[in-house]
Amino acid sequence: MGTRKVLVTGCSSGIGLALAVRLAKDKLRRFKVVATMRDLDKREALERAAGESLNRSLEIRQLDATCEDSIRECVNSLPNRQVDVLVNNAGVGMIGPLECQNVSAMQELFNTNFFGLVRLVKELLPDMKQRQSGHIVVMSSVLGIQGLLFNDVYAASKFAVEGFCESLAVQAMKFNVKMTLVEPGPVVTEFEKKVYEEAEKMDLSETDEETARIFRQIYLKYSHKVFNSVGQTPEEVAEQSLQVIVSKNPPFRHQTNRLYMPLTAMKHADPTGCLPIDAFYKMIFQHDRMFNASLSILRILHRRMGAA
Ligand SMILES: NC(=O)c1ccc[n+]([C@@H]2O[C@H](COP(=O)([O-])OP(=O)(O)OC[C@H]3O[C@@H](n4cnc5c(N)ncnc54)[C@H](OP(=O)(O)O)[C@@H]3O)[C@@H](O)[C@H]2O)c1
Question: Which residues of 263-296 are buried (b: 16+ CB within 10 A; e: fewer)?
């Protein structure tokens, strides 16, 4: 296989930045990377991280996932519009009680997380089908498999992503185009920082006292602990995404965090859906101490796995 052109969205920070740089610095020189971001004023961190690969194996282009013209302009600017691998990574988060979020903010989130993917696939899939080759890699989430308290709208957007890809994968296969959903658990990036900063200053007056208490004193407190205990680095997710990209037979789904797998496995273990809901309920509301103890164990396991 020769050099493959990989277009990555959302490269101003986090997983997108780490992956673009990891691919560009590949020792076997297997990739030419088109690292895109919606706001080129934010390119400095990527330029710094790219170092000598900048303008050699990595070029930076503007692309806003919410704007069809911007996507088309970016793709049209590439020789023969060639994109061998699309990494749809751009995404935004949202947490909090539903009553405190407005519908237009939810629509905006869907516009990026779901319709952003739809726009990119619409633009690139016909070319890939014609060439009878290509790989669409989508940064989904474990919340695309299983919902989570106070992540209602974000999880819904990732469920939409998963349903879209699962449906399309069969048609894509007919044209030798591969699809992979990468499903990270918690990853320590700007994403986490942004949603928690917003959550800290969120106006909770639209919800009842008990819900506000659960959000502040249970959800936010435990989320921090979860990120600190089992959160991966963007580089870890980037490394695994690279392995998916170079694989001869890439999986349709790839979860990046082995520690999270027992939680997602519950979903498939019980077709009634009660098992994961009961388990999350008990974990959050009834087994405070057990939850803390499990997190400590997970923290140790995470460190050991990192060292391995
Ligand atoms: N962090 C986690 O815990 C986690 C877990 C599972 C899945 N994920 C997924 O991983 C992906 C990357 O997230 P991250 O953790 O790396 O967060 P991040 O550091 O906040 O990066 C998100 C990237 O998406 C970009 N973006 C947002 N809206 C965009 C738009 N309309 N067009 C183009 N780019 C846009 C952001 O650009 P700006 O700088 O301009 O905002 C940024 O470059 C997301 O899809 C997220 O849902 C994250």
Answer: bbebeeeeeeeeebeeebeebbeeeeeebeeebe
Choose one of 11, 15, 42 to mutate for the ligand 1 pocket test, by most ligand atoms within 8 angstroms of C-beta.
Answer: 15
pLDDT, mean of residues 161-169: 98
C-alpha closest to that of 175 among 147, 234, 135:
135
269 Cα–ligand 1 center, Å:
31
Query: Is any ligand 1 atom within 6 A of the Cβ of residue 141?
Result: yes
Cα-based distances in Å from 103 to 95, 107, 110, 153: 13, 6, 11, 10
pLDDT for 13-25, tens place per residue? Answer: 999 999 999 999 9
Which option is the CATH number for 4-211+231-257: 3.40.50.620, 3.40.50.970, 3.40.50.720, 1.10.760.10?
3.40.50.720
> Is position 219 annotated as part of the catalytic site?
no
